[in-house]
Specification:
This protein has 248 residues and is of the alpha+beta class. It contains 1 helix and 15 strands, in the order H-E-E-E-E-E-E-E-E-E-E-E-E-E-E-E. Strands 5, 6, 8, 9, 10, 11, 12, 13, 14 and 15 form a 10-stranded antiparallel sheet that branches. Strands 1-4-7 form a 3-stranded antiparallel sheet, with no helix packed on it. A hairpin with a 5-residue loop joins strand 2 and strand 3. The N and C termini lie far apart (106 Å).
Length: 248
């Protein structure tokens, strides 16, 4: 009896060990399958970036005596700029983007377009001269060949926007210091979001006869309901007759 019991016990134990090993093998296979599936699900077509901002050109400079001089490069202006980009690094399924297309659109429908093609990190830039106030939109999308499906299609995109306005503050010539220098004072009332010279006065130097009136357009941007003045000249108007403040 003891011999038979021992044989049966050993056989039962052997079957249990094989069953356990088989279960572990199945579990390992299932884990491996789910691991691959999870990694595949995390693959992306790339990370998209975009932004919209302003850049000032030909701005005046101030000498050591506090007199403002005009730029020798031309009239001052401001450009609205934008970019779109995609970062197709290791997690992006090795896509080649062709093309990445970026468009900047003004409130009146003016557009600036740019394209770029390639792999990895790809970027294209656009810009428009600031003329009208309102919402400026930068949008982009990328198309490309996908080795996973052996096909070409739109595989991503993004965008950003800025609400931009322009405050026009006017100034009259209060004092002609000498043939080249004059002092200007703010015309009142001047109920605008941004007054370019917060002190209300400006000292200006010019090789040409100083005009009786100036009007300066200063851009601002609305961020979450807050007006941010850009302290740049988007436009400069000179006149012999009175000029007044207004908001665009």
């Amino acid at each position: 009896m003891s011999y038979l019991t021992s044989k049966v016990g050993k056989a039962f134990m052997s079957k249990s060990i094989f069953a356990t090993l088989f279960q572990l093998l199945i579990a390992a296979v299932v884990l491996a399958v789910f691991g691959v599936s999870d990694a595949m699900s995390q693959m992306t077509y790339g990370v998209n970036y975009s932004d919209t901002w302003m850049v000032a050109y030909n701005q005046p400079w101030t000498d050591e005596d506090g007199y403002e001089h005009p730029s020798e490069s031309g009239d001052p202006y401001v450009a609205v700029c934008g970019y779109g980009a995609v970062d197709g690094s290791a997690a992006s399924y090795s896509h080649y983007y062709s093309p990445l297309t970026v468009t900047l659109t003004s409130p009146n429908g003016r557009t600036s377009n740019s394209e770029n093609s390639g792999g990895g990190y790809l970027r294209a830039d656009v810009s428009l001269t600031l003329i009208e106030a309102g919402d400026y939109y930068t949008t982009h999308h990328e198309s490309g060949y996908c080795p996973g499906c052996n096909c070409s299609h739109v595989i991503g995109g993004g965008g950003s926007a800025k609400r931009i306005g322009v405050s026009f503050s006017a100034y009259y010539k209060a004092v002609q210091v000498d043939p080249y220098r004059a002092v200007y004072q703010l015309v009142t009332p001047c109920d605008v979001n941004c007054v370019f010279y917060p002190s209300g006065s400006s000292q200006r130097f010019s090789l040409y006869p100083s005009p009786n009136y100036l009007r300066i357009g200063e851009p601002w941007v609305n961020i979450a309901g807050y007006i941010i003045c850009e302290t740049a000249i988007a436009s400069l108007e000179e006149s012999a007759t009175p000029l007044y403040c207004y908001e665009l």
